[in-house]
Amino acid sequence: MVRFSMRRQKSQRPKVHAAGTRDPVWRVQYREYFVDSAGQEQFHHRSHSWSQDTHTKKQAQAAADKLILESQQGPVKADGGMSLDGFWRTIYLPIRSRKWTGATFPTVTNMYRNHILPVFGSVALQDITKAAIQIHLGRLVDAGHGKATVEAVRIRLHSILAEALDNDFVLKNVCRRVETPTCKPTAEPRSLTEAEVQMLWDGTSGRDYIFWRILILTGARIGEVLALERADLRPDGLMIDEAVVCGKVKLPKRNKTRLAALPESLRAELEEWLTSHDNRLIFPTPRGLVYNRGRKEIHDIAKRGREIIPDVTFRMCRSTFATLFQGDEADRSSIMGHTDTKFTLERYRKPLMERRQKSVEELDRRLKVVSINKRQA
What one-character DSSP code corresponds to residue 347? Predict the structure, then answer.
């Protein structure tokens, strides 16, 4: 429910007073009256300041009188009696969704509809408590949800209440100190080994082969591969500047366009593939349109890949690139479209026994001062 200003505001003309020593200001304190959702008269304490460098006391008092008059005659004001779902639909979503890119919109709205709306949708913003949020997160864990889901719910509730606080719907963000409960560990996508990559490439051909080659050698997301055009194959690399999200071509995740380096062998294979059709897309549908990742043809590519590597996924190829790429960390993150090398290392680069073995063998070669033959003798 939205709070309405009183029809007859109580008369008040508070005096400004000097405050502050380091940066002295003229400050006024006043009450803002309203009628809450139960019809009871309430008020909030408000204050405003003007610098003494730019205002005399008389000027500050005149500004304070004008401020209070406008607050009494202004439009309806926000109140915590509005339900969380009402705030989500009328304020939060229209403001925040403008900055979302890629698959963020469907991901966030689905999570809200499944895990927040049923519990808090009808609850007034002012009635949501820290304990209620903490208990809800615990129930999600008990229901078997993983850390990613539980953390996403906590972050979104914190974001919603932060927006409500910024717009004076609530007096504090009760989610500020809510903690994510301990969740059952979930298996993260692993990386393919070098031998598995070779098996996958050797066991595929045609479009399947080109798909797996691009995914593993550029670290691209499947939606970005589906949106590739002829013009994206450039002399200095493969331009990744679009992605298919929910059937629509948009900018990549976080609007991060990037240029991926291409080995000469993959460039030659792509050029040969493009001689098989004259469409502007690299991988067009039979009707010359962009593939949706939900299309049967795309699922079949993954299905045929699992006949070679039983657990292979398109997402796994991105981890494989991050794990097997041996170049500079900044180059790896840039190619993958990340701005933080630490994030890339934590989320995508996986430990490999082969790499560990090579590393300890190299360490042994560098540190060894007595040859094996002499030590055995």
Answer: H
Instruction: Write b or e for each residue in 19-51: b if 16 or more Cβ atoms lie within 10 A of its Cβ, otherwise e.
Output: eeeeeebbbbebebbbbbeeeeeeeeeeebbbe
Does residue 53 sit within a domain?
yes
The answer to whether the predicted template modeling score (pTM) of the entire model surpasses 0.70 is: no
Confidence of residue 323 (pLDDT cuts 50, 70, 90): confident
Residues 261-304 pLDDT 10s: 888 999 999 999 999 999 999 999 999 999 998 899 999 999 99
- Place 374 in a pLDDT band, splitting at 50, 70 and 90: very low
Rounded to 10°, the helix 206-218/314-324 angle is 50
DSSP conformation letters of 163-175:
HHHHTTSSSS-TT
Cα–Cα dist 81/87, whole Å: 10
* Domain extent at residue 216: 194-355
Instruction: Name which of 294, 296, 266, 305 is nearest 282 in CA terms.
Output: 266
Residues 137 and 208 in one domain: no
172 in any annotated domain: no
Q: How far apart are CA 93 and CA 100, in angstroms?
A: 10
Burial of 200 (0-12, 13-18, 19+ CB in 10 A): buried
Is the model's pLDDT at 239 over the cut of 80?
A: yes
In this structure, what token pair is assigned to residue 123?
């609850």
CA distance 245 to 101: 9
